[in-house]
Amino acid sequence: MTEAKIRELLARWLGIGLFFVRLTVALDGVAQDMMGNPRLLESRRGRAVIRRFRRRYG
After folding, report:
1. Which of 14, 36, 33 is CA-nearest to residue 25?
2. Most buried residue among 1, 9, 28, 39 by CB atoms closer than 10 A?
3. Domain range for residue 56?
4. CA–CA dist 49, 43 (Å, integer)
5. Measured between alpha carbons, how far is 12 from 23 in angstroms, rounded to an integer?
6. Per-residue pLDDT of the chain in tens (58 residues, 90 and over written 9)
7. Which residues are CB-neighbours of 35 under 8 A, at least 6 positions away?
C-alpha cells in the first residue's frame, strides 16, 4: 500500500461517512417536519437540508 493509495481510501471513506451523516440528518429533519416539530425547521441549516432532500427525493 503506497501512501497515495491510503490517502485515496481515507478520502473515499470520509466522503461516504459524510454522505451518511447528511442523509440521516435529512431523514431526521423530514421525520420531525412530518411530526410538526419546529425545532429542526428553525435552524437555517436544517431547512436547507430538508429542502435539498425534498427536491431530490420528493
Report:
1. 33
2. 28
3. 19-58
4. 10
5. 16
6. 798 898 898 888 888 888 888 888 878 777 776 666 655 555 666 677 777 878 877 6
7. none
